[in-house]
Amino acid sequence: MPDFSLTPEQESLRDLARKFARSEMAPHAAECDRTPRFPEEIYRKAFDLGLMNLNVPAEYGGSGLGSFDQCLIVEELAYACGGMTTSIIANCLALEPILLGGTAEQKQRFLGPFCAEYHLASFALTEPSGGSDAGTMRTLARRDGDHYVLSGEKCFITNAPHAALYTVFATVDPALRHKGVTAFVVPRTAKGVTPGKDEDKMGHRASSTSTIRFEDVRVPATDRLGAEGEGFSLAMRTLDQTRTPIGALATGIAQAALDHAAAYSLKRQTFGKPISEHQAIQIKLANMVQAVHAARLLTWHAAWTIDKGQKGTLESSIAKCYASDAALHVADEAIQTFGGYGYMKEYPVEKLLRDAKLTQIYEGANEIQRTVIARELLRGYA
Amino acid sequence: MEIVVCVKPVPDAETRLRTSADGTSLDIEAVKFVLAGYDESAVEQALLLKEANPGSKVHVVSAGPAPRTEEVLRASLALGCDQATWVEIAPGVAPDPLTAARALARAVSSAPHDLVLCGKQAGDDEAGVVGAALAESLGLPDFSAVLDLRWDPGSSRLRFQRATESGVEKWEAPLPCVVSLQQAWNDPRTAKLPAILKSRKLPIAKVPLEPLASSAGTTRPTKFELPPPRTGAKMIEFKTPEEAAQKLVRILKEEAKVFP
Question: What is the ipTM of this complex?
Fold first, then answer.
């Protein structure tokens, strides 16, 4: 049976993240959203405090946390700013393929120096012609002696213009579809690597997103992760690990929306009383808090499953899918509670809706999550 | 330099306090305890001195009940203190400042101590007694409301400032002594995640609270009351500053009756 009462150690980790989120991130969230601005000084502080490479074992210079502890931290960060949180945790996603598929020598070589100082990394899977449909990958990895030559383009890559290291998925033969996908570690300084310009996004505007072009980039075969053709499985196993913290990120946004709405309902008066005394608003708040609790508990349950050593594909897909839908709904209802003020950029809730939207799309769109959930479900009946 | 810092767990400033049913204590059921703000500054001061004077050690001491006392000691270890001692007091017993000072004095006196640092007062009862009482128990001189404490190895003296109501005093003093520090002037550091994880595994020396014949019931709170809820502010509408002043004076005289 899961027991979700936090240990004193977990309380301390959550306190650290909460303090950082409220004192360092929150004061800059509106400005970084509006400008938009990539607040690298905040990301540097997050690294200094050990809040960045959460999933990397301590022996390689990371924080070495399990899924549950990562989720506690990510929810607190996202409460202050979803976009900054996406950039802070992007390293976890980018480095996970090295943790899962790298040899001991590769882990030592790539992770040790990388984690010793502030560096960003990007996970480069999605292409202009397909994200969740990774079998149609067009970026080519042509073998040339003891090197591979990479050519193609990736898109929607978090932190790409600022990252030092990319984990890149490319195919050795498009005809093999997903069986041709192979993973590589590529430094940004490699000749022929060109990140594109920052995309102008609806939300997560404190984060940075761009294309990366690979033009005849020579990558030593020793920087390949796993065998040829193992890349697709490696990407899927990576996402099994990182999907649950996205549930936590969405929960943080939802909790912030609920807190804003509840506090506002006690202050705002209509028809001679605070709107919190109108049943229409009470029902709204009651539904919002149910969604937030359910999102958090599903996320914690998925993390607990993964920390037990199970794959948790079903649980993490449910958590990510439900929590992101909940975040959008709760942010929407928070705007409705604020009325006209909620629609104004001067108030904080419309940003939450824009930030929540992405959690339904990235790290596997919710349509794919539902496909996975149905497949896992039906397996039990076949 | 052997530096000892005395710390106390106090309710987090964001906690909503309630009194117990009989009103003689605080209901600590849902209270989150943290390192007192003054003590955070004291720990920071100790760590700054340690960093400036290689070979120094910082020993953190606290007297209080489980689990909150252990938690503030671990928080201090995570910040960089080298060792911790816990004078364990039974839950439900709220030691008065003199009892706490004597309990701390026993733990401090049994270990090396060149410099003993405290917060000027605790963040909960704000009594401001422990530093002076601890110095008395240890037979050491005591300085309170201290800022900007530095060690001058040339003259083997501490140099520091004292914030008083009439201005800032400059002082110097030899070791050993007890120094109680002002709050938040030195921007206390935040413990890093790996240090927090490591601090969970560090040993904490436990010292039992011995019965203190003379201290039982030295002082005892008779009643706790929450401050009355704030009433809404009254806005004065005006067109000129003169009109605002006249209206304000009339309200102060006739409604608030602060002068005849």
Answer: 0.89
